[in-house]
Amino acid sequence: MGIKIAPSILSARFDRLGEQVMEAVHAGADMLHIDVMDGHFVPNVTMGPALVKSIRPLTKVPFDAHLMVTHPQHFVKAFADAGVDDLTVHRVCSFDQLEHAPESEPSAR
Predict the structure, then answer these.
(1) Is 31:61 a contact under the CB 8 Å cutoff?
(2) Per-residue pLDDT tens for 45-60?
(3) What is the CATH number of the domain that holds 92?
(4) Which of 9, 30, 63, 92 has the fewest Cβ atoms within 10 angstroms?
(5) In a domain, 109, yes or no
(6) What is the pLDDT of residues 9-42, one digit of tens each?
(7) β-sheet bridge partners, residue 86
């Protein structure tokens, strides 16, 4: 499988997000990492499905969303519909409810 490079768009300048997504892709990114924070699980609030949907047309590079949220099961479908390829969640946050996530969603487990 080897090493994959997945720069986080959290470190991008949001006034140049599309441009910086393409810079990462052209520099050889294997996927783009999207840190999602809800202000509950961790104190910051960051990106949502609308942002993912706005940059999805820019590249075919896979998107990996890191859901640092209290109730990840509320976000799986929205991020899948927005174009995320993989989802990462934390077991400590309502993980039991993720067992009911549809199998057609990105790898939510």
Answers:
(1) yes
(2) 788 898 899 999 999 9
(3) 3.20.20.70
(4) 92
(5) no
(6) 988 888 899 999 999 999 999 999 999 888 887 7
(7) 64, 107
Amino acid of residue 85:
D
Q: Where are the beta strands (DSSP E) in 20-90?
A: 32-37, 63-68, 86-89
Alpha-carbon distance 78 to 15, whole Å? 24
- Please give the structure tokens belonging to residue 29: 């990114």
Q: Is residue 106 included in any domain, yes or no?
A: no
User: How many domains does the chain fold into?
Assistant: 1
**Distance from chain centroid for Cα 24:** 16
List, in order, residues 6 or more apart from 57 with CB less than 8 Å away.
Answer: none
| Residue-number span of the structural domain to which 63 is assigned | 9-98
Number of Cα atoms under 13 Å in the Cβ half of residue 26: 7
22 located within any domain? yes
